[in-house]
Amino acid sequence: MNLSRRAFLTQTALAAPLVVAASACVGARRLSRSSDAELSADLVIIGGGLGGCAAALAAARLGLRVIMTEETDWIGGQLTQQAVPPDENAWIETIGGTASYRALREAVRAHYRQHTPLTAAARANARLNPGNGWVSRLCAEPRVWLTVLETQLAPFVATGQLRILRQHRAVAADVDGDTVRAVLVQHALSGDRIALRAPHFADATELGELLPLTRTEYVTGAESQAQTGEPHAKASPEPDNVQGFTLCFAMDHRPGESHVIDRPAEYAYWRDLTLDPPSGEPRTRVLSFDDAGSRRLGFDPVRRTGFWSYRRIIDRTHFVPGTYDSDVTIVNWGQNDYSFGSLIDVSPMEAATHVARAKQLSLSLLYWLQTEVPRPDGGAGWPGLRLRRDIMGTDDGFAMYPYIRESRRIAAEFTVCEQHVTVEARQRETARPRAELTAAPFADSVGIGHYSMDLHLTTRGDRGQYGDTLPFQIPLGALIPRRMENLLPACKNLGVTHLTNGCYRLHPIEWNIGESVGALVAFCQAQRTTARAVRNSPAQLAAFQALLSRDGVPLAWPSPLPR
């Protein structure tokens, strides 16, 4: 849309916030319409998740003035407001991420060594994992990740080079043809609005919310084989078929005590609900460990095994005796994945309904664990399981924002497909053994990543898929919309498919995407060029890639890979 300045500033349409978290920071400063009606910067980043923070750091380090918004009280996205310990690759401690991402991880370890009563053994462990969770080599508390991120951003905030607008959400955009002129954001508590103007914008929102606001072409859900050529794509497009999201919570266990919550309003529904199984397998209840994988893992908070240690963020044995009387673990399991409706391109009321039901599902899982889950001794329930209301920065103990796995995705100059990253396709192309393989090379690489094509249960009932992939690159073409000139993706909204989203959506990759976008904007402004021109000019591309390499962004995996 093309709005006059007066019409833009008086725009009144506002989508209801996706999540109204019970915040501990309800006394946030009201923004004045007269003094804050309009702000400008070199780069405006909408969304303060991992990609947004990485973009802000990269751009600020390269001298740009940056404004970053965040819908909740906490920046940090997956690591903080969504409470998801980092899913990472096997080489993350050495070569598997950017230098700044590895510095973030080491700063978390340093925080624990400096500020918590670790045992001597834990303090001496160079690769300290505070929670000793086995989903990640670095399971830590959301507040610690938040503290470290804010510390890294603090020097730029102090000088005014970076301004962070928390509790602000984009509600409209001023677009002139293929160029975004401004984005209007609104404060969740005061209702005050600010027009943010810049020569470049980054969409670092969890759901790609700037794409519809700016009328940027985008894709949702599952593509067809005809569209992508992917062997495992659908026969026909299913734009409403997206991965489920999760309302995470934390709990500990206090034997001999009862912390059973009130029976959730929808408990009977979720307890009795069964899902269609894969072919040849029996139906399984949502609230159960009936499927083969869950049975194999089990759950025992006394023995501290199975799902209990999966996403554990505090392992009490790492701390001086008496510091903690229990471990603390994050519940983000298949049992509380909400796949019964999408948050993309639905009304605010429908989105709010799905978030409320997802919370009911998570509450029902907790209540079932407290009262009905079969125990190894033949009993039922662990009443000592306690919802930790102090972990998430909210009054109700749930994460501030749903854990989002799948976003809107830009219609990009280049789209990464299944055949670019899978083992079978590369072996057919090269006839080389797997140990010598990496994924398809991209001449315009701006980073690296690796994870399986991890797709959780979808809104159309597709079961989890875990497609095997090779270490891959992030092509610059996947960060450039086909038409828009000054809007770049900085989260999960890059040019990937429903399938490859499953391997490009993880923490270090999102960080790398954001970091490369922040550096790209700085490069474009210094060279007075565009992102599209950088990709299409060999000389400019080489210069930009040299900038990334200098700043610690690896562009390719070594061959052979270290064992």
Report what the structure shows.
The protein is of the alpha+beta class and 563 residues long. 29% of the residues lie in helices and 17% in strands. It has 18 helices and 25 strands. The strands form nine sheets. Strands 4-3-2-8-25 form a five-stranded parallel β-sheet. A four-stranded mixed β-sheet has the order 1-7-6-5. The longest helix has 24 residues, at 348-371. It is globular and about 70 Å long. 52% of the residues are buried. The model is unreliable at 1-17 and 19-35 (pLDDT under 50).
Strand residue content: 15-25%
CA-to-CA gap between the ends? Answer: 53 Å
Low confidence ranges = 1-17, 19-35
Let me know the average pLDDT.
92
Radius of gyration: 23 Å
Large-scale geometry: globular
Major sheet summary line: 5 strands, parallel
Number of strands: 25
Number of helices: 18
Give me the secondary-structure category: alpha+beta
Major sheet: arrangement of strands: 4-3-2-8-25
* Fraction of helical residues: 25-40%
